[in-house]
Design a protein that fits this description.
The protein has helices spanning 3-17, 28-35, 40-45, 75-86, 104-116, 157-174, 187-202, 237-244, 272-277, 282-302, 309-345, 348-360, 364-375, 382-396, 401-413, 418-431, 471-481, 517-526, 548-556, 561-570; strands at residues 22-26, 48-53, 66-71, 92-97, 122-127, 133-136, 139-141, 179-182, 217-222, 251-256, 260-265, 455-456, 462-463, 491-493, 506-512, 537-542. By secondary structure, the protein is an alpha/beta fold. The strands form four sheets. It has a seven-stranded mixed sheet, sandwiched between helices. Helix 10 packs antiparallel against helix 11 (309-345). The chain starts with a helix and ends in a 6-residue tail after the last helix. 40% of the residues are buried.
Length: 576
């Protein structure tokens, strides 16, 4: 099960099966989907001389080029293609749709395309199931920022259909027809599970694959079952970059000297250093970047002496690789420097230590005092203060309502707006004890083992451990052992007679409400040769990739204070 490889092979097949000079016509989403796995250089190597957007008006006619069209099967794209075929700009068209063309409107769209092709320029039509953004070999996103509209007021058919389409596309790309389970306390995950099951049943011919040793399982999770993970500071490279700087389609924007903005690509497919260190902790990263700089200095020194023609020839042959290495080194030094600056300026190590301790042990008085001190500290930013109170509220909702209220009042004394303070209550409404599946703090009493074992990388930069364990790790362990409780994660599709404690080897998660790069790292570890649960293969997807900013922003959507407080009151917030 390899998300990135599946999309890459679809791209390869598209551009290699058509000979000659070509143009690649994409829509907004497929342009992003391809960019995640296929570099500009690789596209040019396949005689693709132009990449255009199908929604771009006033494109020039280039009848010497063949057009490879890769778009989502949406009504908008069908309309754009009809206009394109009535006035073709290229000699021939090869149409590739990124998902199933199955419903009545889509089939009618195909009929209209045939009617519009009066010049008979369409040579082939295919379905290529690459309707998701491959974050890594084992993870994907749909770049759909929020699914809150599916909860409040439970109506957004465009978003709902996009999520279903993305899940189906991934299953088809991976060639899996799974059993389906969902989170019992989530109406939304059940609705999605039912919709995916109905689509598989209606397209059963597409979901007929070769035999497998075991039946894979698709588990549709809800972010509210683990609201802790997206609230934590991160200390591994990829996750930390997304938390501090934000990653969008493998791209990071940095403000440089003179208030200019520079964009860098962070892709394991294109960057060997990032591939090696994307899941490493910040201390190890600091050491690795220092060694990278030393290697660059060594290479620069070796090129400084050019006394003969032979020396110059060797330099010119090595220069492209040297320039590439130099650019990569500069990029990682700048990013690590930006991360280091934020760690120091916002006192993130103090914040992270308290965060981690809240996730690992129950000690409300100690945590209340620690958070009170941090709220009063001028070096801690407002967002981190709100996150700390959110974590405290999640841990002690049922026991310490007065302390939670007191912490919210302390936030207000720091001139944090009522609306921002209300995020704490919005979180309890969304993911409190009454609404989430049990198991979030199943490790109660587990005391943090070694905050003292802090490794040092660069001077003045320390790497705080990630003691927290995302909930999906426990779910994988229970699936692998055959002990995941059916009442907490019921089946909506189960094929054939199976034993009560059947062990699962292939697991596909979809997290409605968004995933995190900490969870992506967890899945990578589970799939590695050093896996703590050998014998399983895991894929993780979600509608978006959250950091704490985007998660808190998502919680604030559709937040009506009166309705929110009324709902919490009916759930007996704070009562034992």
């Amino acid at each position: 099960m390899n998300c990135a490889k599946a999309v890459y092979e679809y791209c390869q097949k598209m551009v290699q099966s058509i000979s000659g000079m070509k143009v690649l016509l994409l829509d907004a989403e497929t342009a992003g989907i391809i960019s995640m796995v296929y570099s500009q250089t690789e596209i040019l190597e396949q005689e693709v001389f132009l990449v255009e957007r199908i929604d771009m008006p006033h494109r020039d006619k280039m009848t010497h080029l063949k057009a490879i069209v890769f778009v989502r099967p949406t009504q908008e794209n069908f309309s754009l293609l009809q206009a394109e075929l009535k006035d073709p700009k290229y000699s021939s068209y090869y149409l590739y749709f990124s998902n199933i063309i199955g419903d009545r409107k889509q089939l009618r769209g195909l009929e209209l395309l045939a009617e519009s092709d009066e010049n008979e320029v369409v040579h082939e039509v295919h379905e290529f199931y690459a309707d998701y953004y491959a974050l890594s070999n084992e993870s994907f996103s749909l770049q759909c920022p929020s699914t809150m509209g599916l909860i409040y007021p439970r109506s957004d058919p465009v978003v709902f259909d996009r999520v279903v389409d993305g899940i189906l596309s991934c299953l088809l790309a991976l060639k899996k027809r799974p059993d389906i389970r969902f989170t019992s306390k989530s109406v939304l995950s059940q609705r999605l599970a039912e919709a995916v099951k109905d689509s598989i049943d209606s397209e059963s011919a597409l979901f007929t694959f070769g035999g497998s040793d075991s039946t894979p399982v698709l588990v549709i999770l809800d972010r509210k079952d683990d609201p802790v993970t997206p609230l934590l500071n991160q200390w591994t490279y990829q996750a930390m970059v997304h938390e501090v700087l934000n990653i969008e389609n493998n791209r990071v924007k940095l403000h440089t000297a003179g208030d200019k903005q520079e964009e860098f690509v962070l892709s394991a497919h294109q960057d060997p250093f990032f591939k090696k260190y994307m899941y490493k902790n910040f201390g190890d990263l600091g050491i690795a970047v220092r060694e990278l700089v030393e290697e660059l200095q060594s290479k620069t020194a070796s090129h400084s002496s050019m006394d003969t023609i032979e020396d110059m020839k060797r330099f010119m042959e090595a220069y492209p690789e040297f320039k590439k290495f130099s650019s990569a080194t500069t990029k990682h030094v700048m990013i690590v420097d930006a991360l280091s600056a934020r760690v120091g300026a916002d006192d993130l190590m103090r914040v992270s230590e308290v965060e981690q301790e809240i996730t690992q042990m129950e000690a409300s008085d100690k945590h209340f005092k620690a958070i009170t001190a941090l709220i009063g500290s001028p070096s801690i930013n407002d967002k981190d203060k709100i996150r700390l109170v959110c974590l405290f509220a999640l841990r002690y909702e049922s026991k310490e309502a007065e302390k939670i209220s007191a912490l919210i009042e302390q936030l207000k004394l720091q001139d944090i707006s009522n609306e921002d303070c209300l995020i704490v209550m919005a979180l309890l409404d969304f993911a409190g004890v009454a609404t989430r599946t049990p198991g979030l703090f199943g490790n109660q009493g587990k005391i943090a083992s070694s905050m003292a074992n802090i490794r040092r990388g660069l001077k003045n930069i320390e790497n705080v451990y990630t003691q927290h364990e995302p909930l999906i790790f426990q779910i994988v362990k229970q699936l692998a052992n055959g002990t995941l409780k059916p009442d907490a994660y019921p089946f909506i599709l189960r094929r054939g007679p199976q034993s009560k404690n059947e062990k699962v080897q292939e697991i596909i998660f979809f997290m409605v409400g968004g995933i995190t790069y900490e969870e992506v790292r967890t899945v990578a570890l589970l799939n590695s040769p050093q896996s703590p649960i050998p014998g399983v293969r895991v894929v993780l997807g979600g509608n978006t990739v959250h950091n704490s900013d985007s998660f808190l922003r998502d919680l604030g959507m559709n937040m009506n204070p009166n309705d929110l407080l009324a709902r919490l009151k009916t759930r007996n917030f704070g009562r034992k």
